[in-house]
Design goal:
The chain is an alpha+beta fold. The chain has one domain. The chain contains three helices and nine strands, in the order E-E-E-H-H-E-E-H-E-E-E-E.
């Protein structure tokens, strides 16, 4: 069976300066096959973690903060990673980040399910983790994280 590639981007909307969200990624899907939102989130988070793991110019804390901004941790959400940084190490050293894909996926699913994150597929908002989509090649998907404005 042949595959198609879709582009998935993450965006933060709201007040304040938050830094970059996880990087855009290409996700491969079986051509013509339906996929649930839960499955799409799982594939996307895995691709984002893999892409950010190879960006050696990022500090481990920057990588961790990027996922926390996008998927908006709440009390009870699991921390995403351990940097392995020695407390006495030079803070400018770049070290590998061990992001737990399973934890990040669960946090992203909770963010979507609780309304902290919306998903747009080709400009149309999609709701429900079990909603099935059949996306054509070249589709654009956006994970949109809404940040509450100050005082609101």
């Amino acid at each position: 069976m042949s595959t198609i590639s879709i582009t998935v981007k993450s965006r933060l909307v709201g007040s304040g300066t938050y830094g970059p969200p996880p990087c855009p990624v290409e996700v491969e899907l079986a051509e013509g096959a339906a996929i649930t939102i839960r499955e799409l989130i799982t594939l996307t988070v895995k691709a984002q973690v893999e892409a950010m793991a190879v960006q050696t110019e990022l500090d481990p804390e920057e990588v961790r903060a990027s996922f926390e901004r996008q998927y908006g941790r709440l009390p009870g959400d699991s921390p995403s990673s351990q940097s392995g940084r020695d407390a006495a190490a030079d803070p400018t050293d770049k070290v590998p980040v061990n992001i737990d894909v399973g934890v990040e996926t669960e946090n992203a699913i909770r963010a979507f399910d609780s309304g902290r994150m919306a998903l747009l597929a080709n400009g149309k908002q999609i709701e429900g983790l079990d909603t099935e989509l059949t996306l054509p090649s070249g589709s654009k998907v956006t994970f949109l994280r809404m940040i509450q404005v100050a005082g609101g």
